[in-house]
Amino acid sequence: MEELFNKPILDQMYDFIKEKFEQAMYDKNSKIKEVESKIGRLSEEFTNYLKTVIPNQDDYQKTCKMFSKYELEYSKEVDIWGLAYFKLGLLEREKIRNEFFKKETKINDKDTFLNYSKNNFSEWIEEQKIKYMLKTKEYKDLQKRYREIIKKYPIVAKVYEDLMPIELNKEEIMALVDLREIDIELVYMELNLCFKLGMKEVINF
Question: How far apart are CA 191 and CA 154, in angstroms?
Fold first, then answer.
């Protein structure tokens, strides 16, 4: 469990969802808005009080800066604890799953992004494409069609791959459309793979 707790991907997950989650909670929870409003009033009262007890403007500014630094460091501490409890929630979920579903759940596949040592999602996806997609008949057929078109219409390749502004005849335009359709099919294949990888990630988490 400690190994899972320290995985960098959990930090990235927390950073990714934190702001969106906080905004969603703020929009739906009137209690948060009340507390925020109260904090704003207290902050204003505190500032006004400082002005009365610290008449010297330089000392007042110095005190405000010190307090701002304190607030910043305190917010960092709160965020650290928030991250810790986020990870704790994931660990507790894992404990519950192991406790109640250990007979039904069998985890064998460790080839997940969570266990990927490089922690680079793009690199991991490319490795998964090589493992699961590039060897399929569908992918090979698409690549074969692509190469045949490029070989037959090299001028189309200059337009499509090198973005050269060349005037094409009707037959070459149709070949250009075919290349685009092949690319779209390859994109859909990759999206399908990413969906399945996401499902595998959840099952093996």
Answer: 29
